[in-house]
């Protein structure tokens, strides 16, 4: 059980750092077009005190750093969101290491975003260790005009589908105090949002995988 003094402190941290979040973290120069679309839609549809959106979060973990596009903290669960913006056809299988994008003149393999987001979820679960693990959900959100030519795996959504999914989550799993404590802990743990942070993250990935995000 989280001591009351920490909950009070989290409320103050959540408010102050949440203000910084809105002023700094949502700056468009730190988001690509797909991330901007997702952030704007979530801000539009989930404006009440039951929801708090964080964008472009870089956390430290055992392998270095992990960069998360969005975390939507709500009384109904914590949604760890990986955004993808593609055109063409998408061929996907939840168990495969890579998926395929097909356009008129080319095919391109990319990392299975479910696997990619699993590490993000693990980092958030480790940080929010007082939240039930199943209350912290992975969500891969596709924006753009890509069309899935295979069945869309569980946990993968178009942007309208994801908005509907969040709206349908009505079972309360976090109190207002716990929600603010989550926000305060995430804000305290995240690395400063700078271009240098991004460069350090990319270098960390190159050392481990020889790949970007």
Keywords:
27% strand, alpha/beta, 213 residues, 5-stranded mixed β-sheet, 4-stranded mixed β-sheet, Trna Endonuclease, Chain: A, domain 1, globular, 42% helix, single chain
Description:
- The chain is an alpha/beta fold and 213 residues long.
- The protein has a single domain (4-86, 113-209), classed as Trna Endonuclease, Chain: A, domain 1, CATH 3.40.1350.
- Helices cover 42% and strands 27% of the residues.
- It contains six helices and nine strands; from the N terminus they run H-H-E-E-E-E-E-E-H-E-E-E-H-H-H.
- The strands form two sheets. It has a five-stranded mixed beta sheet with strand order 1-2-3-7-9, with helices on both faces.
- It starts with a helix and ends with a helix.
In short:
This protein is an alpha/beta fold.
CATH topology: Trna Endonuclease, Chain: A, domain 1
Q: From N to C, what is the helix and strand string?
A: HHEEEEEEHEEEHHH
Q: What structural class do you assign from the helix and strand content?
A: alpha/beta
Number of strands: 9
What's the N-to-C terminus distance?
35 Å
Structural shape: globular
Q: Over the alpha carbons, how many angstroms does the gyration radius reach? A: 17 Å
* Range of strand content: 25-35%
CATH class: Alpha Beta
- The figure for the number of domains is 1
User: Stretches where pLDDT falls below 50 for ≥5 residues?
Assistant: 11-29, 195-202
Biggest beta sheet attributes: 5 strands, mixed
What order do the strands of the largest sheet run in, or round the barrel if closed?
1-2-3-7-9
The assigned CATH architecture is: 3-Layer(aba) Sandwich
Question: Mean pLDDT, rounded to whole units?
Answer: 84
Helical residue percent?
40-55%
Number of helices: 6
């Amino acid at each position: 059980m989280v001591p009351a003094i920490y909950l009070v402190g989290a409320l103050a941290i959540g408010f102050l750092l949440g203000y910084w979040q809105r002023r700094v973290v949502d700056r468009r120069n730190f988001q690509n077009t797909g991330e901007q679309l997702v952030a704007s839609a979530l801000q539009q549809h989930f404006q009440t005190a039951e929801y708090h959106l964080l964008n472009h979060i870089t956390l430290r973990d055992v392998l270095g750093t992990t960069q998360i596009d969005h975390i939507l903290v709500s009384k109904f669960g914590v949604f760890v969101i990986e955004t993808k913006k593609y055109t063409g056809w998408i061929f996907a299988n939840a168990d495969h290491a890579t998926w395929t994008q097909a356009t008129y003149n080319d095919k391109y393999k990319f990392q299975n975003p479910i696997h990619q987001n699993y590490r993000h979820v693990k980092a958030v679960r480790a940080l929010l260790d007082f939240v039930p693990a199943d209350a912290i959900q992975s969500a891969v959100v596709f924006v753009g005009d890509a069309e899935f030519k295979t069945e869309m795996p569980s946990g993968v959504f178009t942007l309208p589908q994801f908005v509907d999914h969040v709206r349908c989550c009505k079972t309360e799993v976090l109190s207002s105090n716990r929600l603010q404590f989550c926000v305060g802990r995430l804000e305290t743990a995240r690395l400063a949002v700078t271009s240098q942070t991004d460069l350090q993250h990319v270098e960390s990935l190159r050392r481990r995988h020889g790949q970007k995000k």
